């Protein structure tokens, strides 16, 4: 879905309404549509647009390296930032330009100080090449939280579920889905860092709210 005029309050309001029951612009995982929409925002959504702001902060959490390794075309301008430079300052600094490191300086012309500087540059160059970005593995999970009966207070059930806080856990959109006989189940989205959050532990924590929760099922599980 394309959004227009995201530099206006009207456009951000439309985005906020769209994300009221969704974690992503398209589907249950990050897509190019999220990055394209994110890149159109001139600034973070205001606090009175909580759904758009929640989505914005989640998309912002992905690093450029994660996006490239996942096959996306580019990070958004909001994440990378833009800088205006003068003609004199547009040339990269010598320390960051591999072409400016003279790897074949004449031994006859370099003195002890020049040799030391050259060795330091070679060492810094090698360290920069050896560093590899660490990919943070994440998963998008949709949980079905089932109540005991049609008299269960579903608002309190959702409140109890969202009260669970774990390092690496982000709650997303939710909705009530009819299952029959006047009973609704809570379907809620979440994004977890695989190294920090155990899905089994998360399910157990939800099931501890025995006054409201009868059982918890995993409706969808996708690696990001």
What report would you give on this structure?
The protein has 224 residues and is an alpha+beta fold. The protein has 3 domains: 69 residues, no CATH class; 30 residues; 86 residues, Ribosomal protein S6/Translation elongation factor EF1B (Alpha-Beta Plaits), CATH 3.30.70.60. Helices cover 34% and strands 20% of the residues. It has a 4-stranded antiparallel β-sheet with strand order 2-3-1-4. α1 crosses α3. It starts with 8 loop residues before the first helix and ends with a strand. About 11% of the residues have low confidence.
Structural class: alpha+beta
Uncertain stretches: 75-99
Q: Give the count of structural domains.
A: 3
Query: What is the strand arrangement across the widest sheet?
Result: 2-3-1-4
CATH architecture of the largest domain: 2-Layer Sandwich
Radius of gyration: 25 Å
In short:
This protein has helices at residues 9-18, 32-40, 50-60, 64-69, 77-80, 112-130, 154-162, 199-207, and strands at residues 138-147, 169-180, 183-193, 213-223. 18% of the residues are buried. A four-stranded antiparallel β-sheet has the order 2-3-1-4.
